[in-house]
UniProtKB/TrEMBL annotation:
Signal peptide: none annotated. The keyword Cytoplasm does not apply. Its cofactor is FMN. It holds the Pfam family Nitroreductase. It comes from Bacillus xiapuensis. CDD domains: YdjA-like. Belongs to the nitroreductase family. This is Nitroreductase. Keywords: Flavoprotein, FMN, NAD, NADP, Oxidoreductase. PANTHER family: NAD(P)H NITROREDUCTASE YDJA-RELATED (PTHR43821). Residues 57-140 form the Nitroreductase domain.
Length: 161
């Protein structure tokens, strides 16, 4: 699959098969994700692979679509507010790289902001100097929905003199 096909076909997955995702696959996608652009090479991301005990405490209403892998991706604060923002943006690029690398191999993700709450930060043991970018279910899709309509890109492009 070409990179454009991967980007255009990627979907958020809400229900997953029980088929396992190997640690080797996960590490391979994380290594690809780490090639994300990041200002001053801060590499601000941290990944927490969430086990069953911690997962049960998070108590997500959908149980993350029964994804076989659950992980939290965090972004370290910078020395300044601008660097903190740059780090969060770099970590979002990391997430997108991960999503695309997994999707290319037939594995989908579900991105949840559940860990932004104080309670769930505590459950995950997130240090104060980190933001939680999201908790991600990772696995083989049970179903893949059609894409939702998008605003035509020409409506978003502004040409400046």
């Amino acid at each position: 699959m070409s990179i454009l096909e991967t980007i255009k076909s990627r979907r958020t997955i809400k229900n997953f098969k029980t088929d396992p995702v190997s640690s080797e696959q996960l590490i391979s996608w994380l290594e690809a994700a780490a090639m994300a652009p990041n200002h001053r090479m801060t590499e601000p991301w941290e990944i927490y692979v969430i086990g069953q005990e911690t997962r049960a405490k998070l108590n997500h209403k959908t149980n993350f679509g029964n994804a076989p892998v659950l992980m939290a991706i965090l972004s370290k604060h910078g020395a300044t507010s601008i660097e903190t923002e740059e780090n969060a943006l770099a970590t979002a690029c990391f997430v997108q790289n991960f999503n695309l690398a997994a999707w290319e191999e037939g594995v989908g993700t579900f991105w949840s902001s559940i860990a932004a709450t104080a309670k769930n930060r505590e459950i995950l043991g997130v240090p104060e100097e980190y933001d939680v970018i999201g908790v991600f279910g990772v696995g083989y899709p049970e179903e893949i929905h059609e894409p939702k309509p998008r605003t035509p890109i020409n409506n978003k492009v502004k040409e400046l003199p």
